[in-house]
Amino acid sequence: MDTAKTIKELRESIGMSRKEFSEHTGIPVRTLEDWEAARRTPPEYIPRLIAYQLLYEELVREKEEKNGEDY
User: What pTM did the predictor assign?
Assistant: First the structure.
């Protein structure tokens, strides 16, 4: 899978616009636009870091929800 498609799918998987995703990750909107349009290619580790961040946030959210149910 190419990097442009991967980044777009990661963003869409959490239902965020480019602007929202930019604010969430700290990646400038213009950079996201260029990456998703394949005008520029990020370093190969960037999609993995984004995926790890999103997974970590999901795990934290699930843990908080579980702990909230215990009370």
Answer: 0.83
Buried b or exposed e, range 1-30, using 16+ CB within 10 angstroms: eebbebbbebbeeeeeebeebbeebebeee
pLDDT tens sequence across 12-43:
999 999 999 999 999 999 999 999 999 999 99
Using left for φ > 0, alpha for ψ between -120 and 50, and beta otherwise, residue 5 falls in alpha
Domains of the chain and any CATH numbers: 3-70 (1.10.260)
